């Protein structure tokens, strides 16, 4: 077991953009996104955007191709590989979604280097439509995080606090939303 745990945020840390915005912008759905944004929570909006894109004839393959083009600095890939090679336990805590994260990390050959990914759930349904769901249903129960930094659907501090309980280790946290919780 590694003595050093490296916890990454995903958007604007591993990749140089917000993955949700990247997909919406690249698939030319920004106008609709901006119209709907004031009317619903972010995760619900992304689920709706995936429905709209599917209705417009966009396929899961179109989304995958867009995700493969998401900007990522080559040094990030090297840094992730180096940390893994040194025996660090690599984790992600992100308000993105599993499909986006998995697609991008697999494309860059670093998916298998992460021991744990805590994010919003997603799956491709039988019609080929991407379904995105919040990590937990914040309309029924809030995580009541006192930091006011976490999104309502996911307490990043909870995952961070679990690391030391699992074993004695040093924690290195990477990303704006993660650093704010230290």
Please count the helical segments: 8
Helical content, roughly?
A: 40-55%
Uncertain stretches of 5 or more adjacent residues: 163-169, 177-182
Characterize the main sheet: 5 strands, mixed
Q: How far apart are the first and last residues' alpha carbons, in Å?
A: 23 Å
Shape: elongated
Physical arrangement of strands within the biggest beta sheet: 4-3-2-1-5
Question: Structural class, please?
Answer: alpha/beta
Q: Calculate Rg over CA atoms.
A: 17 Å
Give the strand tally.
Answer: 5
| SS strand fraction | 15-25%
Order of helices and strands: EHHHHHEHEEHEH
Question: How would you state the average pLDDT, rounded?
Answer: 82
Explained architecture:
Helices cover 41% and strands 19% of the residues. It has helices at residues 19-26, 30-36, 42-55, 60-68, 74-85, 98-107, 156-166, 176-179, and strands at 4-8, 89-97, 114-124, 130-133, 170-174. β2, α6 (98-107) and β3 (114-124) form a beta-alpha-beta unit. The relative contact order is 0.21. The model is unreliable at 163-169 and 177-182 (pLDDT under 50).
What descriptors fit this protein?
alpha/beta; five-stranded mixed sheet; 182 residues; 8 helices; elongated; 19% strand
Helices and strands in order:
Blueprint: E1 4-8, H1 19-26, H2 30-36, H3 42-55, H4 60-68, H5 74-85, E2 89-97, H6 98-107, E3 114-124, E4 130-133, H7 156-166, E5 170-174, H8 176-179
Protein name: Inorganic pyrophosphatase 1
């Amino acid at each position: 077991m590694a003595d050093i745990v490296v916890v990454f945020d995903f958007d604007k840390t591993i990749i140089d953009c917000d993955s949700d915005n990247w997909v919406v912008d690249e698939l030319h759905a920004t106008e609709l996104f901006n119209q709907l944004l004031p009317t619903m929570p972010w995760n619900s909006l992304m689920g709706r955007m995936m429905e709209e894109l599917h209705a417009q004839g966009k396929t899961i393959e179109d989304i995958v191709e867009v995700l493969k083009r998401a900007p990522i600095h080559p040094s990030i890939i090297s840094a992730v590989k180096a940390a893994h090679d040194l025996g660090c336990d690599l984790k992600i805590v992100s308000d993105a979604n599993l499909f986006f994260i998995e697609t991008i990390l697999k494309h860059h050959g670093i998916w298998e280097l992460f021991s744990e990914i805590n994010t919003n759930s997603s799956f491709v349904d039988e019609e080929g439509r991407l379904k995105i769901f919040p990590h937990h249903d914040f309309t029924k129960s809030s995580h009541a995080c006192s930091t006011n930094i976490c999104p309502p659907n996911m307490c990043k501090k909870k995952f961070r606090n679990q690391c030391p309980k699992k074993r004695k280790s040093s924690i290195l946290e990477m990303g704006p939303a993660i650093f704010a919780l230290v």
